[in-house]
Amino acid sequence: MLLIHCPHCEETLPEAEFAYAGQAHIVRPADPMSQTDEQWEEFLFIRENAKGAHYERWRHLHGCGRFFNAVRDTVSDRFLTTYPSGTPRPDLSTLTEGKA
Amino acid sequence: MSYRIPGRGRIDRAQPIRFTFDGHDVEGFRGDTVASALLAQGNHLMGRSFKYHRPRGPVAAGSEEPNALIGTRRGKGQFEPNTRATMQELRKGLETTSQNKYPSLKFDVGAVNDAAYMLFSAGFYYKTFMWPRNFWHKVYEPFIRAAAGLGVSPTEEDPDVYASRNMHCDVLIVGAGPSGLAAARQAAGKGLKVVLVDEHSEAGGTLLSEPQAKIDGVAAWDWLSSTLAELEAAGVKVMTRTTAIGYYHENFIGMVERLTDHLDEVPQDTPRERMWRVRAKQVVLAQGALEKPLVFHGNDRPGVMLAGSAQTFLNRFGVLVGKRPVVLTSHDSAWYAAFDLAGAGAQVQAIVDTRAEVRADLLDQAKALNIPVKLSHTATATSGRLRVSSLRVNKVSGSTVSAGSEIKCDAVLMSGGWTPSLHLFSHTKGKLAWDDDLTTFLPSDTPEDCVIAGAGRGLWGIEAALADGAAQAQAALDALGQAGDAASYAVDEDRPGTGVMHKELPTDKQPGRAKAFVDYQNDVTAKDLRLAVKEGMRSIEHVKRYTTNGMATDQGKMSNINGLNIAADALGKKQPQVGLTTFRPPYTPTTFGAFAGYHRGSHFEVTRKTQIDAWAEENGAVYEPVGQWRRARYFPKSGEDMDAAVKRECAATRSSVGIFDASTLGKIEVVGPDAAEFVNRMYTNPFLKLAPGKCRYGLLCGDDGFIRDDGVIGRISDDRFHVTTTTGGAARVLNMMEDYLQTEWPDLDVWLTSVTEQWSTIALNGPNAAKLLQPLVPDLVLTEENFPHMSCAEVDVAGIPARLWRVSFTGEIGFEVNVPAPLGRQLWETLWEAGQQYDICAYGTETMHVLRAEKGYIIVGQDTDGTVTPFDAGMGWAVGKKKADFVGMRGMARPDLVAKGRRQLVGLLTEDGSKLEEGAQIVLDPNQPIPMKMVGFVTSSYDQGTVGQPIALALVEGGQDRMGETVYIPMPDRTIAAKIVSTIFVDPENNRLKIGAAA
Amino acid sequence: MNALTSFPTETLVSNAAVSVTKVPHRARLSLRARGDLGPLERALGYSLPRKIGGVTLGTACLGPDEWIIMTDDAAAIMAACASVDLPHSLVDVSGREISFEIEGDRAGELLTLGCPRDIDAIADGTARRTVFDGVTVTLWRDTSERFRIDVWNSFAPHVAHLLEIGARELAAEMA
């Protein structure tokens, strides 16, 4: 069972309090009707299958209820960092593996 | 004849305990295991092997035991198969039975398999039973089924209680041998939460088997008891009978504590086992090492056992495993076993060592004890029917094996050296490094916050184990910011040693006929492993699966390294190039009870009940599960089956009034200045202009354009909406809304609060619904003009502040009364009383399903399957045409979703008036060849309704353009023709919804 | 709403280890707001705790923009906040959940039966949402030996059942 740091609660807590919510930084276009079919397909379906650092979302479901973002190494299953939704992607080169 | 040695062992001779083995009374002592008590009677034969039904006795003294598996029984339902006799402690009244034998352990007809040895070689599953083809069902499969499996599964419900707890600690130490004890001492007294666990009934590990050692001048057992007292005083939690079964991410360790299996009487409220879910900041693995058997013909005969285990039986249990043992070894450690047994009165027949040179002090001591020594010898056979009676040994010079000679004996104590217990370390994805000197894998790097101490990383001897336990624990403490120096220890009469590695021992006989066992439990021989390689298996993982080496319940504790050595030799590679198979949790076999914990019976999973559920129960409701809820499905009167009850409930509701508990509907209160904007963006329907006091049906789609959920949404005030969802969709919809709100539209000033359980919701439907309700709602006139269909109001109902909705899921005049949840039953009973004059009828979910289907109202998840758009469902009317955007709007415009020929929801009426089966497939031409082209399927089908004939809803390709056409539903016995019709079977003009019109 | 608050205190189990009591309803309001909370705090008459887990006068901060207010006078709070000039959401959830009080030497240990989170690491006088045996609960730690669990009505029997079993198990352990 993973340990996850909630950036809102500022606590590192057991995975059982959280729910996975898919890849992060996929922004719903402001005007969906202006999107081509290809663009909309990309938005709906096309996802990374990263080996290594993966930007993803979690929700502190049994906690503060917030969705937030995380960088997790899919090989080691360790979180490199977590950060609130809406903030920019952290620079991978500044992250060292460890508990976020 | 007793093999118990006076004055030896840690058993309590003042407490004799009787138990039974295969129906015979046996006496042992408190502190004995079943194995030690039977060995004390001179009984080595404890079971039959899995495949060949060969007689077997214990080969080990601990949890790695592969052979001595027994059934244990305490009482009705309290039977456990495959318990290791070496771990089961004696208790009064314990009943034990041997396994895999018929009719008796001593005479077993299944042993014919042993003679048919050639039939059962590696991969026999894949080869032997191939031909003739028709033999499979009649001959092979019944034979395999009868022969397969270890022990017998219990058939009665287990009456025992199982428990679980979470634990958090600073330092968890696994294994309470010398390394673990030294680690615990190092960590104790520093204000840290330290936990020390051991799978045995008492702490001590090797110290229990080596009482001769003196630690810092104190005898081992005295040192042990004072250390345990010291640890307890320092607040260290010492847990015995507790097995760490798995090591998971981020220092999360599963442990099973056995609480009652050793007790004569089980105290009340005490669980049999407890699963501990431990999160440790630092873990010290001090699990020690496992002794390897030697691989030679007949190495499985009862009486052949590991030398270290014989030492354990002697020193811990006071049991001599043989009076005339012979020692066969490639490692120094077994020499000490010979000396210990000789010291206890055994006539050690010989020490046979495969090595040409052995330490002089060992040779001297053997000489002093008059034990014959044979160096550079191999063993090539054993004899004896149910117990070893001789060992055949041969001199080896280079690659030449001389003629053999027999050594008479009653036990063979073997040692092929030691291998670290790597299981838990491997669970951490830890890397192993091959050590050429020790010819074994040692733990290397691990991603976890974990250190390995003592024999677990190849350090032999008590002094080395103690020193390393302290040092490794200090390394863990350093990581916790507790710097310090590791304690040092001096041990006298320590027994460190070295040895050499072997594949199977050399023999002068035909190797192809040798039964030299590598995996005792799965009956895998060296020959099987070589055959697997010969037949093309290259990876150790393939060899493992082809031969089943290491796949038994002992997880290859004894067989993996020997198996690897042999496979590597057959492949002509070095061991690290061949690699070790993966060890997986659990470390030892674990009961299902321990995994289930409290989750059984009524506590198996959450069963949510509404406030009105108790009334339904008192009134004979039959329930069905809907999500986590249990809902009243129908209310049978005496003698009624479901069909009859539902027919009556449907008719009563359409003719007068029905009452229905709708409390399970999901409810979300959407509040804030942007509430209308948010609801408008989420749902397909327009909501900006919905006036307070009005409701509107809402369809919720995903951004892919497919229907996700639906419900009625009421506007309580400008900035407050009361949104309802389906029962099963409540949590999912709230999560989806939070997702959009938090991450896509964080600028909106609106908040979502789940009020599903704030309100009890009671639906009244039927032509008399308004008449029933009006007297209870003095502040609101319930007329078509004043409170039309799709209105809502905050008003007192029967004196309770309520949210009253005029909505219908039946096609009749309908109301839903929401009152604070705890008052739900009170309101229900008030309405029930008031409704008696109208013959009010309580109905359940089944009637609700029928009545809604007659009106063509969909149930999301039944009439939709995640690939249905609002247009497919015939609900284009629910999609706002003038909206700039809503969730799903762009998705619905995707090429596939607007293409012709999509499956669309239609009604079906069968030509012969029969009822269709839900899920039945639909074809256009019943005479086409099989496989037919299926164009859709039945989603809902009922014949208890009020239409006068069975009705069905179905998804059919291009269905909405096929009105009036006939389609066919092929069933196993016949083909049913049905006409495609509108989904609305009752009152398409909605006249019955109007107050006054239907009265 | 008298009927909501009038049910009696009900002791589910009480022994040497711990007692578990179903305590009467108080009114509960879910408050959501963000930004400058000054106007709301002036209406409420006290400062809202800003750190998740913080508790002030029966009001616990459960999320960055979320508070649960336990009160004996919901109407007064609703009235006071009605005219506050700050976008917010105030929802009466008094009927939604019930509370269990868990008190005794082994109260914290009892919670470990269902809570994966480290109970010992929770500070006295705090509250947060967490999970107990798969069920979302609000866990209040009043003192090291007294906790409260708020749980939605329909999950309460499941939670109560485990608390009762566990309390007996803990008592047996002490015997």
UniProtKB/TrEMBL annotation, chain A:
It comes from the Bacteria. Pfam families: SoxD. InterPro entries: SoxD, SoxD_sf. This is Sarcosine oxidase subunit delta. GO terms for molecular function: sarcosine oxidase activity. Residues 80-100 are annotated as: Disordered. NCBIfam families: soxD. One of its GO terms (biological process) is tetrahydrofolate metabolic process.
Automatic annotation (TrEMBL), chain B:
SUPFAM superfamilies: Aminomethyltransferase beta-barrel domain (SSF101790), FAD/NAD(P)-binding domain (SSF51905), Folate-binding domain (SSF103025). Residues 903-987 form the Aminomethyltransferase C-terminal domain. It comes from Thalassococcus halodurans. This is Sarcosine oxidase subunit alpha. Keywords: Oxidoreductase. InterPro entries: 2Fe-2S-bd_N (IPR042204), BFD-like_2Fe2S-bd_dom_sf (IPR041854), FAD/NAD-bd_sf (IPR036188), FAD/NAD-binding_dom (IPR023753), GcvT/YgfZ/DmdA (IPR028896), GcvT/YgfZ_C (IPR029043), GcvT_C (IPR013977), GCVT_N (IPR006222). The keyword Oxidoreductase applies. Residues 614-883 form the GCVT N-terminal domain. Residues 515-597 form the SoxA A3 domain. One of its GO terms (biological process) is tetrahydrofolate metabolic process. GO terms for molecular function: sarcosine oxidase activity.
TrEMBL record, chain C:
InterPro entries: TrmE/GcvT-like (IPR027266). This is Sarcosine oxidase subunit gamma.
